[in-house]
Amino acid sequence: MIKLSIQISDSPFSREVGQTYLDRFTNFPAEEADIIIAIGGDGFLLRTLHKHYHLNKPVYGIHCGSIGFLMNSPTPDTLLEHLEQATLTILHPLVMHCQTQEGVSITDFALNEVSLIRQSSQAAKIQIETDGIVRLPSLICDGVLLATPAGSTAYNLSAHGPILPIGTNLLALTPISPFRPRRWRGALLPDTATVKFTILESDKRPVNASADESLVLNVLEVTVQQDKSRGYKLLFDPDHNLEERILREQFLT
Q1: Distance between CA 39 and CA 163 in Å, rounded?
Q2: In order of start, what are the domains of the chain with their CATH numbers?
Q3: Position 253 pLDDT exceeds 70
Q4: Are the CB atoms for 118 and 238 separated by under 8 Å?
Q5: Tens of pLDDT along 9-42?
Q6: For the segment 137-149, what is each residue's pLDDT rounded down to a tens digit?
Q7: Higher-confidence residue: 135 or 243?
Q8: How many CB atoms lie within 10 A of CB 225?
Q9: Higher confidence at residue 1 or residue 195?
Q10: DSSP state of 78
Q11: 10, 23, 34, 42: which one is catalytic?
């Protein structure tokens, strides 16, 4: 028998759906489970993956949120059959190293994207380097982000960035409301690239950085690269695997 750890987000609908699973299955601690079940939205799934990464357990998401791109449909009566047939996807995160105005060094991980966003009414002014070469001396913008293929259909897509199929070995560097250079629409980078963002005029134009839902205030420098040594295990129903979902997204009108 598969041992399940059922984790439920705080939303009323998630709790309602989650109770149908708790009524049917024994709920084990995550440390003792074979599979972690995350019931909620995409954000809750990302938090669950980050929280339990050290356990090296696969996570199966059940959609009770708004978009549910990384989730599966609720099927409490046939959950075990779905789990037996599920396909495994390994996601490699971005690792973000930040230096703040207060002199603090912070490291965090992102499965979707690392984003830099202006903190005030003043536009951000950011220098961008890749692999030690300055590519943009000054990007004046609301922000900029670096997205993985798995995250390319999230914030990156809403910022008019490209959709990246799983397995492309690329990262999407996408500006958010760029003002100068006005016509720059971003770049596709190899997933081996190291990207460094330096905040210019940081006292006048403060910037925050985030790795998925983790926020760092008042950054001066942010360096990002993909960490192939870390793998997060995500389970999908075979007819709705992540590769197919991303492919379909490119044909939506």
Answers
A1: 26
A2: 4-91+231-249 (3.40.50.10330), 95-226 (2.60.200.30)
A3: no
A4: no
A5: 999 999 999 999 999 999 999 999 999 999 999 8
A6: 999 999 999 999 9
A7: 135
A8: 19
A9: 195
A10: G
A11: 42
- Residues in the chain, how many? 253
Query: Quick one: tokens of 189?
Result: 């980078």
> In the structure, what pLDDT confidence band is assigned to residue 250 with cuts at 50, 70 and 90?
confident
Task: Print the SS3 string covering 133-173.
Answer: EEEEEEEEEEEEEEECCCCCCCHHHHCCCCCCCCCCCEEEE
What is the largest distance, in Å, between two alpha-carbon atoms of the chain? Answer: 59
CA-CA distance, 205 to 225, in Å (whole number)? Answer: 25
Residue that is written with structure tokens 């005030």 in the block: 120
Give pLDDT tens digits for 204-222: 999 999 999 899 999 999 9
Could you give the CA distance from residue 107 to residue 114 in angstroms, rounded to a whole number? 12
End-to-end CA distance of the chain: 43
The long-range contacts involving 13-22, CB below 8 angstroms and separated by at least 24 positions, are 13/64, 14/39, 14/40, 14/41, 14/44, 14/64, 14/65, 17/62, 17/64, 17/74, 18/64, 20/74, 20/76, 21/62, 21/76, 21/79
Please indicate whether residue 42 is annotated as part of the active site.
Answer: yes
Distances (CA, A) of 26 to 13, 20, 52, 73, 237: 21, 12, 19, 20, 22
Contact by Cβ (8 Å): 108, 174? no
The answer, yes or no, to whether the previous bond of 175 is cis (omega within 30 of 0) is no
C-alpha 111 chain-centroid distance = 3
Output Rg (C-alpha) for the chain, integer angstroms: 19
